[in-house]
Amino acid sequence: MGEDKCFVEDEEEEDEEENNSSKVAPERRTQTCPPCRSHSSYWSYPSYPMKPEAKNQSPKTSSRLFSGVRIVLCRSQVAGNVGAIARAMLNFGPRKLCLVSPKADHLCKESRRRARAAEFILEGAVVASSLPEALAGCTRVLGTTARARATDRAPMRPRQAIEEILDPLGRGEQIALVFGHETSGMTNEELDRCHIIATVPTCSELPSLNVAMAASILLFELHQAVADRLGQGAWPPQERACKTPDLPATTEQLEGMYAQMYDCLEEGLFFNPQNPDISMRYLRRFFGHSGISEWEVRLWRAIWRHLLNRMKTPKPRSATREEWREFIAQRRLKEKGQANKD
After folding, report:
1. What beta strand segments (E) does 29-117 contain?
2. What DSSP element (H or E) covers 5?
3. Strands 30-33 and 174-179: what pairing?
4. 0.85 exceeded by the pTM?
5. Is residue 10 part of a domain?
6. In sequence order, which residues have a C-beta less than 8 Å from that of residue 118 and are 6 or more positions away?
7. What span, in angstroms and rounded, lies between the C-alpha atoms of 119 and 25?
8. What is the 8-class DSSP label of residue 236?
9. Quick check: bond before 155 cis, omega within 30?
């Protein structure tokens, strides 16, 4: 029996751009297939082949995984971009939206029009006054940039960056995808709070993308990566049963350690007076990539606190080690007695 040509009709859209895009290149929307009008491979692309759903994959599993993803927009000034990102979130899974010091009203008519069916995401968006507030509770933060920065921190491609956050996401940790201002992008201070940096490869004539476009690409890669992992089975990884789980450090705990580290190194005259921030930037990069745990943060904070106390209370040159230990013991007893009185 001969094969027939089937056409897939698009859902009618009110948005003019979508109506125009459905009329471009009609030959690409034609596929040769058996008489059945269902195209299982219609939305399959050569670079991203869609895999059939695994037996152990369920909507509840996907929903639980995407509930740990937070989309953070810094200083957004175009309401339409916020609405377009909310729509992309509805397309690809995540539902948590956080706006840091927004300059545009995310509940205005334009934003709602661009969001379409994702208005509930706009209505449930959290507005934060600072990026640390928006990242509270997150253990992995992925930032985006389109230009080279001061340090040699090499940005990753979107899929490579997404792969870095899949394991923490599968363990139930909170993940954040951060996008910057429409014109200037993310500042160096904002990127310092990110563990992973992603850049979408583009042509040199116009390297920067619209923030909604960049968010759609990252969200698509996240959706594909989660679908691929679920299709392979044995994911998400099972939680380890142990009495004292070694939990990953959150951004708040890391920031507390960085502040204590900075005080200690500044007291020891470690920083270069001409550029004191560069050393801290590299230290943030080192600890951010190490996957440091809560217990390790407490250990490092104890080390910095001990060193800071030693620098503020210098050892007399004439004192021996035993005399110095006795002096420290007496001082601790005195501090303990003072604390009991308080």
Report:
1. 30-33, 69-74, 96-100
2. strand 4-7
3. unpaired
4. no
5. yes
6. 83, 86, 87, 89, 90
7. 31
8. S
9. no
Residues 69, 176: one domain?
yes
Q: How far apart are CA 190 and CA 167, in angstroms?
A: 24
Which CATH number covers residue 153? 3.40.1280.10
Q: In this structure, are 73 and 204 located in the same domain?
A: yes
End-to-end CA distance of the chain: 93
More confident residue, 28 or 143: 143
User: pLDDT tens across 60-100, in order?
Assistant: 667 888 999 999 999 999 999 999 999 999 999 999 999 99
List the one residue out of 155, 136, 144, 167 whose CA is nearest residue 216.
144
Residues 192, 280, single domain; the answer is no
Mind listing the pLDDT tens digit for each residue in 96-119?
A: 999 999 999 999 999 999 999 999
d(CA 15, CA 116): 10
Residue given tokens 């500044």 in the structure block: 266
Tokens of 267: 């007291």
pLDDT digits (tens, 9 = 90+) for 285-329: 788 777 788 888 888 888 888 888 877 776 565 666 677 677 777
Assess whether 90 and 220 both reside in one domain: yes
> What SS3 class is residue 140?
strand
Three-state secondary structure call for residue 338: helix
d(CA 257, CA 297): 7
Domain-embedded: residue 128 = yes
- By residue count, the chain amounts to 342
Q: What is the pLDDT of residue 286?
A: 81
How crowded is residue 215: how many other Cβ atoms within 10 Å of its Cβ? 24
As a whole number of Å, the CA-based R_g of the chain is 26
Please give the Cα distance from 303 to 290 (Å, whole number): 18
Q: Which of 254, 69, 252 is nearest to 169 (CA)?
A: 69
